[in-house]
Amino acid sequence: MSHSLIWFAAVVASIIGMQGAMPSAKAQSAKEPASKSALDERSGKIEKLLRNDHRDVDGAMLDDGTRLHFPPHAAQQFASILEEGKRIVVYGQKEKTPRGEEVFEVKKFKVGDEAVEIAPPRKPKPPGPKNEEREMTADGEVKGYEKNPKGEIDGLVLTNGTVVKMPPHRAVGLKDNFPVGSQVHIEGRRHVTPAGDVHLHADKITAADDRADAVSDKATMVEVLRELRAIRALLEESRK
């Protein structure tokens, strides 16, 4: 046998020997520790329901001394299922409260034939766009009145569909001062509700007749001032 063949056979033998010495993938995976996310199991009889400072049920004490804790968002939802004296099987993990007390944080549980898996709390919705209230005016005829859930008048509706709103304490006498059919002029701010409806938040409401009178009075004053200027000019001319 040539030297090259002897060398090749030695290399093959060494590779085979190394493979035999290596543990199999199955053997390695069998030795790996269990996942940290795996849930522990506890079972027992509910000896006492536990309540927080607001007197809401937020946990239970089992007959073996295990203290169970339920997430705040879920405790009240399942409070009717958790009754003292019932047997319960829970799945979760040991945790410590901010006060340093050791509790068994429940992720899911089973009471009788009823199995419950606790969903994580919903994330709060991001704040919507800021409601920029621009100046707004409206003229029209009063069609009816708006009321809040308490039945108090808090605005009015014009025949053109404009909805006018104001605090109830400012709406006192609104129905008497501006009865249905009245022509009104409204000054205020444009407000968009979360539902997308547009309201006119009134700062000032006047009857159209009063506004016409005010405009007329203003025009009369302009005429008077114009005449006074003319008289003054004539007097100055006569002195020359």
Structure description:
With 240 residues, the protein is of the alpha+beta class. Helix content is 28%, strand content 36%. The protein has 5 helices and 11 strands, in the order H-H-E-E-E-H-E-E-E-E-E-E-H-E-E-H. The radius of gyration is 41 Å and the shape is rod-shaped. The termini are far apart.
Short description:
The protein is of the alpha+beta class. It is 28% helix and 36% strand. The protein is rod-shaped.
Layout of strands and helices, then pairs:
Layout: H1 3-21, H2 25-31, E1 40-51, E2 57-62, E3 67-69, H3 72-75, E4 87-96, E5 102-111, E6 114-117, E7 135-147, E8 153-158, E9 163-165, H4 174-177, E10 183-192, E11 198-207, H5 208-239
Parallel strand pairs: 3-5, 9-11
Antiparallel strand pairs: 1-2, 1-4, 2-3, 4-5, 5-6, 7-8, 7-10, 8-9, 10-11
- The dominant shape is rod-shaped
Assembly category: single chain
Walk across the major sheet and give the strand order.
1-2-3-5-4
The CATH topology annotation of the largest domain reads as OB fold (Dihydrolipoamide Acetyltransferase, E2P)
- For the terminal residues, how far apart are their CA atoms? 147 Å
CATH architectural category of the largest domain: Beta Barrel
Number of spatially distinct domains: 2
The residue ranges in which pLDDT falls below 50 over 5 or more consecutive positions are 20-36, 211-219
Count of β-strands: 11
